[in-house]
Structures are given as C-alpha cells and as structure tokens.
Amino acid sequence: MSTNSSTVGQLLWQGPVCIGWKQDLEGAVYHLANCFLLLGFMGGSGVYGCFYLFGFLGTGYLCCVLWGWFDACGLDIVLWSLLLTTACLLQLAHLVFRLHEDTLPEEFDLLYRTLYLPLQVPLQAYKEIVHCCEEQVLTLATEQTYAVEGETPINRLSLLLSGRVRVSQDGQFLHYIFPYQFMDSPEWESLQPSEEGVFQVTLTAETACSYISWPRKSLHLLLAKERYISRLFSALLGYDISEKLYGLNDKLFAKFGLRFDIRLPSLYHVLGPAAPDPGPESTEEDEGVPEAAGAPPRATPTNVRPAPPCSPTPAAADPPAPPSRMSRPDSGILASRTPPQSGSQVTSMGQAPLAPVHTPEL
Questions:
Q1: pLDDT band for position 26 (50/70/90)?
Q2: Local structure of residue 174 (DSSP, 8 states)
Q3: Spatial CA neighbour of 28 closest among 79, 66, 83
Q4: N or C: which end of the chain has fewer CB within 10 A?
Q5: Of the candidates 99, 123, 116, 9, which has an alpha carbon nearest to the alpha carbon of residue 46?
C-alpha cells in the first residue's frame, strides 16, 4: 500500500517537467473556444437557462474540434471535443422537444393565463384538466341553444371562452353568462355522481360563442383520482354560483330598489312580470273593508308608523316616520301574492316577498 502511494506521489510531484515553452501562442480558434466555454458556464437554471448553457458549451466544444484538427493535430483532442459537442446538441434537442410538448393551443393557453395562473395552478395539473376535455373547443352560433328547459340532460360541465349566453326560465330572462364563467355550474352541483337530471333553465347564445366541455363521467373520475383538482373545481364552481346569485340580487335591486337576501329560496317569482296595477278605486275599496268581519289582519307598510290602538288620535297629530328603506311601487302586489300564514308572520308591504322584516342589507 505504501509503495502505491509513493508511486502516485512521484507521478504528481516529480513528473516530467516541461523542457521548453512554446514561443508562439495558439491560434484564434483556441481562444474563441475558451471564450464560449466561459460564457456557457455562466448560464442560469430553468429551461431557458439550459438553452443558454448548452448552446454556448456546444459552440465552444465545436471550436475545440476545429482547433484540434487544424492547429494541435491531435486525434484525442478532436475525439473528446466531438463527443462533448454531440452531448450538448442532444441536450438542446431534448429541450426543444420539451418546449414543444408543453405548448398549449391558443385558447387553452389564454384560459390558463386568465383563470388558472392567478391561482398558481401547476401546469401539469392544468394539462390533466385539458386532457379530460380532449382539448376540443366547441362553438355555438347566434341564437343556438345550449340547453332546453326540461329536456336537455345534465351530462357535462362547460366553461364559456368567448361570447355571451342568455339564461331564461319559462320565457323570463334571468341573467347572462360571460366569458370564463361556467355555463351549468348550478346544475352540476345539484346532482350527485350517481344521479341524473335535466336542465331547469334554457341557455341560448346571444352571440357567436366558443366553449369547452368536460363529460360528466370523465370529470368525476378525474376529481375522484386527483384531490388537488377536486378542491380546485370546488372553489371555482362555488365562486361561479355565488357570482350568479349576486347578479340576480343586483337585478332585483335595479328593479325594485331593495336588497334581497340571496340565502332565501324561491326568489324567481319576484322576477316574473308584475300584475297590472288595480288602480286607486280598487285600493280604496280594499281599505274600506272592515277588519271585524273575520278577515286575516292586513299587512302594514314599513314606511308608515301605525297609531296605537288604545289612543285613537288624528293622523295629522302623529306624522309618519321617515322610511328606513326605499319602498317599491308594486310591493303591495307582490305581497298580496303570498297569503299570510298567521298574524305574527304577515309579510310587510314594504319588504320583499319571503324576506324577514329585520333582514340586514347585503
């Protein structure tokens, strides 16, 4: 063992010494090769950093091949430099293949940058989502229906990419669907994976539309397989449904001047066409009917303070209190559609149907 160590030491420290140094320098190709190698080793990380690294290294080793062939005239220099040049070229080809594989169609790339990239969704997870819809972009012509009320089965989930879709029920307009919103998120959330159902609304394209669609069974399998994608879709669908509910609430506010509680069910009938105004004569007749005949107590407007029953004072002596909310003109008509169940649960004429008296404003 000591003999071997001494031999290695002699080779390292007592090797052949250069008898004489060359007086002339190497050619320009040799120095150019070293400059390219120096630039190459200064490369960074990532895909484009690897492009920079192997691009300069490959060019530098190619210059070494030329130097070994024309100036040094050494076969070993040529072979090693050629081998290193080939390795760099293979790495560049692999990087080009990876970039080509990661490239998405224009519509899906725009969808990723608009909807998924702000949520920091990994590109690999997004590719699985795109693969589930088979990378197909479907279209709707103007006035073409996507779903018909009571007829179209709920067998897919679609996301609108461009255009505008009108949602209606019984011929009554409800709201619009705009790009990057789900077209049938309420229907998707209303059914379990083993249940079947049909649309309760009609979806019609108002302009030329494009959308992507996931088959129901394939998407359920993907959500059951990938927990991260399942949570992602749960968040996106919940946000989409809440946006649609708030849109309906804003539509009611623009029509009646009242903020409705979106947690209350069955607000659709408020959107329906209001009945014709009965006129002042019929109103006066209704007010003249005595309450002692056994009729249920009549609702009291919220913007008028009723006089105490024990002290009948004139109306002029007690002016009405200022209204806390703006009353809509046809609130009495809407209140008359819902018969009161008891005297304590009478719907106020100044409030929205189905809304409690002390509902906080949103």
A1: confident
A2: E
A3: 66
A4: N
A5: 99
Which one has a higher pLDDT value, 143 or 354? 143
The tokens describing 273, both together, are 């066409």
- Structural tokens at position 246: 């708030």
Q: What is the dihedral of CA 55, 57, 58, 63, to 10 degrees?
A: 130
Scanning the structure block, which residue is given the tokens 């702000």?
A: 118
In the chain, the percentage of residues whose pLDDT exceeds 70 is: 64
Return the beta strands (E) in the chain as ranges.
138-140, 145-147, 156-162, 165-169, 172-177, 202-205, 209-215
Model pTM score:
0.52
Do 53 and 61 contact (CB within 8 A), yes or no?
no
Query: How high is the mean pLDDT of the chain?
Result: 74
Sign of the torsion formed by the C-alpha atoms of 343, 347, 351 and 354: positive
- How crowded is residue 153: how many other Cβ atoms within 10 Å of its Cβ? 12
Tell me what pLDDT residue 7 has.
Answer: 65
User: Which residues 6+ apart lie within 8 Å of 129 measured at CB?
Assistant: 222, 229
For residue range 281-293, list pLDDT tens digits in order. Answer: 444 444 444 443 3
